[in-house]
Amino acid sequence: MPPELRKTGISVVGDIPWGTHFCYFYETQQDLLDTLLPYFKTGLENKEFCLWVISNSELLTIEEAKAALREAVPDLDRYLSDGSIDLVSHDEWFLDGGAFDLHRVANRFKERLDEALARGYVGMRVNGSPAWLQRKDAEGLRQFEEEVDRLFPKELIIASCTYPLATIRGIDIFDIVRRHQFAIARRSGEWEVVETPELTQAKAEIKRLNEELEQRIFDRTRELVAANESLKSEIDERSRMEQELQERAADLAEAQRVAKLGNWIFNLRTNKVSWSDELYRIFEIEKPDFDGSYESFVSLIHPYDQLRVLATNAQARTKGSPFDIEYRIITTNAEVRIIREVGYAAQDEAGTVIRLFGTAQDITERKQAEDELRRQKEILQQIFDHIPVMISFVDAEGRILLVNREWERTLGWSLDEIRRQNLDIFVECYPDLQYRQQVLKFVAEAKGEWADFRTRVKGGLVIDTTWVRVQLTDGTKIGIGQNITERKRAEEKLRQAETELRLVVDTIPTQVASTLPDGSLDLVNERWQEYFGLSLKEAQGGGLKEVIHPEDRAEYLVHWQTALVTGEPFEREARLRRADGQYRWVLSRTVPLRNEVGTITKWYGTGIDIEDRKRAEEHLKATSEQLRALSARLSSAREEEGTRIARELHDELGSALTSLRWDLEGIDKLCSESGDQVDSSQVRENIKGLLGLIDATINTVVRISTELRPSILDDLGLVAAIEWQAQQFQARTGIVCRFDSFLEDPGLSREQTTAVFRILQEALTNILRHSQATRVNIMLEERHGDLVLEVKDNGKGITEEERSGPRSLGLIGMRERAQLAGGRIEIIGATGKGTVLTLRVPINGPAADDG
Prior knowledge:
The structure is a single chain. The chain is of the alpha+beta class. It is built from 28 helices and 31 strands. The strands form seven sheets. Strands 5-4-8-9-3-10-11 form a seven-stranded mixed β-sheet. A hairpin with a 5-residue loop joins strand 15 (about 335-345) and strand 16 (about 355-360). Helix 22 (about 610-675) runs antiparallel to helix 23. The longest helix is centred in the C-terminal third of the chain and has 64 residues, at about 610-675. It is elongated and about 220 Å long.
């Protein structure tokens, strides 16, 4: 396999293989820079570690070299900071205490190369000027050149030696060229190549070989053409493999980053530590901030761990034994991390340890995970031991592997007892074979579903248990169970209570319902379903809204939603549609049920049909209005009657009594003036006039008294009074009034008699005022123990509005009188056919108070 060629950056040299050792002669400082600047720039660009040893014999200082190099390499500061190039002085590199040790210098080249390779560089590029040694110790220079010439061809090194022509004798030039593989020179900007005998011989050999090669190329052209396609395929495959290799390399680099793993080298001779990039990230330190000394590394270790790390390192130094240690570090951010370090020792031919190398990994997260896992395991163990739930582990063969304390406490057997006695726990807990087979099937299936069982415990008592079985990947089945005996009893009592409560709810004559906190129905009783004609499912489907009267629906639902939001009790009267399609007034009351923290868990409500009450209220309201009007009418009537009586007393009785007084005064005057000769005829005439006036006054008093209460009612009874009233009505109004009765004494109380007579009077008054009748028939008879008074006219007929309207005060008064007498009134009218009033009063009614 041909050696790998490296670009030199020197145009006259071109590409050379690793291990090349050549020399360069120059005249001026510019000639030196024209060669070395592209030489080192090319090395940096190709990931080579560069070492420039600037000798006192050269026409250049370190600062001048850096300045010139910075112009050629803009990123020089970055290369300097990350250690890609090192510029050292002649004394620092070649002399140790003023003495030159060629073996030490040669080993230093080897150590720097090893460090560079450990840090990821592909090789090392070197330049130095041993010209000073030519003048002081020519033999030492020869031995040094021979030593490095033996060393460099075996290593990944390219080395150039520079010599200023002004300080080198001509005879020395040939000796210098001979010790190098080839030599180049630059004078006044021009290049010259100085070839050694070996190089001349090699060129001649190359020429001969080229001629042979041309012939062989000609001969094999056909073979190459034939192999071209195969080679193309190989190239494609190689490209694919290279691509795959690059991807794997990227994956490896990413894996190292993810694994937080870096490598290191500790050079015992220089006391320097070299780190890979990952270690800088782990220790959170920048490369310029770490000088590479072992002491600086130790200072980053936690103080409590430093002695242990130093002791481990010392043992590896002295005995060369590998080590594996964990320790803590403190980062620049004061963060504590845990590092696992694995190290090995490298020894020289004498068995002396010269280097330690190895890896360091940040295992902080792993340690934290292990601690957390340990803590979680402890928590789980505590839960396993103290949770009030039975837990058991059973293997694939049905053997008990592990149980917790609650399992032992509930069932009575300990795990140790089961193992010592080799008990089949399933036989003990489920002695019935058929039932046990069901249990074993449940365990084998391990569906993760709960099931209840009747389980026998150690003492023989059978308890109710519930179990769930789950299976792990290795076939182990975990059983989780509870003793639910008390719960079963409580559930049975609860079911019985619910049944009784449901029976009570279904038998009460009121609609009962409950809803969830959001207002959705979840229960209705039978009365509710019968009343509305809806099942619970139909009501839940929106049917309940439809039973609300369209005029009441919006307001009803708004108030219900408000109650749901505020949590306040709900009470509303609305018209709801009954199962028969009739809308009836229903009072709905709903109150919330709250838990111990005040959260509403349910709403309970009732519905009461208040249609009859509503009608009664409306009737009472109307009756109250009528009574108020009647009271006002009676008050007005009393006032009018008092006024009329007062007027008649004043006008008729007053004038009659005044006239009587005047006549008596006239008689008295006549007697006084005539003395004993009184004209008896005149007196008799005056007395006759007085008697007539007295008769008229008496008639007036009788008439007024009769109007207030006919004396005939008390003297001759009800029948005679009605007959007299009919005659008076006909005489006064001209309306024919006929009275028929076969009763003599109805046997009513005084109050009943008065009520019947007053009702007749009011009926005749209404006929006169409203009916436009020409005939009235009055009939009085006894029917089924009732006194029946019937008054019938041939008028226009009373209407429904007139019968029940607020202005029908006379009718209201008649009804009130009838009720006070223990009777009732029925009024029937037909348009154009007149009106019939029928009064029924029980003859054996309330006892009369005749006073």
